[in-house]
Amino acid sequence: MPNGSDVSATVTASDIARLAGVGRAAVSNWRRRFIDFPQPVGGTSTSPLFALTAVEDWFDRHDRPFRVEVGDRVWQQIRGTVDDPRLGELVGHLGGFLLHHQRDRDAAIGLLGEPDAAAARLLGSAIERAAPDLPVGFPPTWEPAWVPVARSAAAAADRDGHGALFEVLRVRYREVYSRQVAETPPAVAELMVGLAGLRGRSGKLTVLDSACGVGGLLEAARAVGVRRLLGQDIDPTAARITAAGLLLHGVGVRIVAADSLLADAFGGERADVVLCGPPSGQRSWPHDELVDSPWWSYGLPPRGEPELAWVQHCLAHGRRGAPVLVLMPAAAASRPAGRRIRANLLRAGALRAVLGLPPDLFGAGSAPDLWVLRVPGDDAPPAQVLMGLASTDPSAVERAWSSFTGSAAVGEPGKVIEPGGASLPPGFRRMPVADLLDGEVDLNPRRHVPVYPDSVIEREFPAVREEFLAALSSLSALTSSITPPGMPSPSGMSSPAEASDAGSEPAVASETTGATQPAWVTVGELAKGGALTVLTAPLQTRTDGGDLPLLTAADVRRGRGASGRTGELPGMLLLRSGDVVCAVAVGGIAAEVIDEVGAVLGPKVALLRVDPDRLDPHFLAGSLRTAGYRVAGGPGVGDEDGGSSRSGSTLSRPDLRRVRIPALALTVQRELGADFRRLGRLARSVREAAELGEEIIRVGYLGVADGRLRACGDPDSR
Q1: 3-class DSSP state for residue 325?
Q2: 545 — alpha (psi -120 to 50), left (phi > 0) or beta?
Q3: pLDDT, tens digit, for every residue of 62-97?
Q4: Within 317-432, where are the H helices?
Q5: What's the confidence (pLDDT) of residue 586?
Q6: Are the beta carbons of 24 and 14 closer than 8 angstroms?
Q7: Beta strand 606-610 pairing with 580-585
Q8: Burial 558-570, CB ≥16 within 10 A → b, else e
């Protein structure tokens, strides 16, 4: 149970899901199912906040696992103390306080013993005296409401360590502001550290990041043993968070809060390694003020090429031969305005590789490229550069770089042997510099390297072929199980009408009739009689992203799981097992029975929630699909006599409530429902075989073109 020091701590639904080890949809489901689930204490209708203590009490009562680590508890208290726009400010202040507490624990604890207002007046100046190595420019004022958070942080640091605690706070801050705070993903930061050769030789090296943000690249360098770290960022809050996090680990750090282009704090430094993820698309960068800068050894960057200004800034801050790794937008490799500078980088031997990174590592927007550069030395410029694309695995980039630089074994199985060097993984290629120095100087690796499907890299052709053959075998077996026309069905009934006359009382019927049971009944009549409920998504349902899975109309038509994302909304509908979902369009009706619960109903999808004691969901879904397939003149959608409302071979967009299904006994419904389920399996098998067929064709063409596959046999034989 929590102590009383964190009564202000709040959690979002995403926090609850993470701490409970479940998906966000499960939390939404609990809120609907359990009337005693805690009510929001703040936030908005789409992003409510819950009191952490109340949530913990609820999990205790329901005997569900829910573990809040000490660092998470401090973070939730931070979120309950300030609004989101001030999270960075409070995290930065806590970083300074933790440094004070680490360096002079007694003095820091003495301040926390004062009343909140008095402690707030004293803490700012005390931290400045205890940690003069923090960057200037950060507001020193503490607020009284922040002092209880500092008390919690002090207790947590005593237990878990100052550096470990603050790293939790830094990571959580980045998660909240993942779209606003520019920071390199951890996997990419580790990759850059590896390509720079920092592992195993980092003790006395100096690493510089001139656009350090909240310190992701410098933290990755520290983690492999670098002891001297330099960084600069225009944002005082980001600079403060970076400096505090690194200083708490006891390394040599100098972080400056200023514009690296206009107020370069490291003009006299020549770092052993430069790592940088500069801001992208700076329209207002100081081009005119920097016309005479000494950095432009490769040409004055045009006004529309700020990223090439950052590249040259980074090269100017490395010693001779120093590796320089810069994250660049993909467009910077081919924009016409920058071709002169790109050509000069190639001629000088400064550019060594342009590497496409896995898109999945970057949450928003397109993935950048990684430019691997080197400050030219006395040796001759290399004749080749490495071009490559890593579609899923960043470690493939490091393997390719090792092979390119000659540090990997030659001739590994399954590798492509390129002329003049060691083997390279698929998706990478050595490019002669002379071939790139044309009129465009296009360095986009997507132009020079074949773009393989993920399956080529992950599974290769044999696995794809085996899956395709297995899908064909399954398709054949399912097709053979369908009874040909003229043969009796497994139930011995030739039609629903005969089944209805066989003596069983129908379970569904129109309430508009008397004792006579009709042969057909509409969806609207079933809803009126209580056999099912027709539901649709709220008009405000978002489809542009969020934490919850969203079932779209395209998902229903393709018979797949939820592929969309949405946010929490009052009145949203969570799908249950046995629900029937329909997408109605011109030419037919797609209907599926839900097996996996938790997704949110999307727009343009109808939900039919059935009474299982009166209506079999698989029978209903199959009957709706059948109505969609009926040609003109067949019963299902249309006039009272079952005729279609239009001539032709397909339906117009039907009114779902007017769709007719057979009125049958529940036992017969279940029997036909089982048949419809078998047909559903056949439909999924057909789709799977078609998708694998397309994949094997793609893989085959790429493999033959690349020389890795051969198509044997007579090309004219059938």
Answers
A1: strand
A2: left
A3: 888 877 777 888 988 898 888 888 999 999 999 999
A4: 339-348, 395-404
A5: 66
A6: yes
A7: antiparallel
A8: eeeebebbbbbbe
C-alpha dist (Å) from residue 615 to 195, 207, 673: 62, 69, 10
Indicate the SS3 state at residue 17. helix
pLDDT tops 90 at residue 475 = no
- Taking CA atoms, 27 is separated from 22, 354, 454, in Å, by 8, 43, 33
Per-residue HEC secondary structure of 388-454 comes to EECCCCCHHHHHHHHHHCCCCCCCCCCCECCCCCCCECCCEEEEEHHHHCCCCCCCCHHHHCCCCCH
**Of 236, 257, 258, the residue nearest 139 (C-alpha):** 236
Sheet holding 206-209, edge to edge: 252-257, 228-233, 206-209, 273-276, 323-328, 369-374, 351-356, 384-389, 428-432
Residue that wins the pLDDT comparison between 21 and 230: 230
Whether the CB-CB separation of 370 and 193 falls below 8 Å is answered with: no
- Residue for token digits 């809120």? 31
Q: pLDDT, tens digit, for every residue of 413-457?
A: 334 334 445 678 778 889 999 999 998 999 999 888 866 544 444
- Both tokens of 344, joined, read 């000069």
CA separation for the pair 248, 245 (Å, rounded) = 5
Tokens standing for 601?
Answer: 């109903």
Beta-carbon contacts of 560 under 8 Å, excluding residues fewer than 6 positions away, are: none
- pTM summary value: 0.64
Find the farthest-apart pair of alpha carbons in the chain and give their distance in angstroms, rounded. 101
State percent of the chain over pLDDT 70. 82
Q: Which helix (H) or strand (E) is 629 found in, with range?
A: helix 617-629
Structure-token match 């339906």, residue found: 651
* pLDDT tens digits, one per residue of 374-409: 999 888 889 999 999 876 677 788 888 988 987 433
Tell me whether residue 700 is exposed, middle or buried, using C-beta atoms within 10 angstroms of its C-beta: 0 to 12, 13 to 18, 19 or more: middle
Q: What angle do CA 568, 573, 575 make, to 5 degrees?
A: 115
Burial of 716 from C-beta contacts in 10 A (0-12 / 13-18 / 19+): exposed
Q: Report the 3 state secondary structure along 259-297.
A: CCCCCCCCCCCCECEEEECCCCCCCCCCCHHHCCCCCCC
* DSSP H or E run through 95: helix 87-103
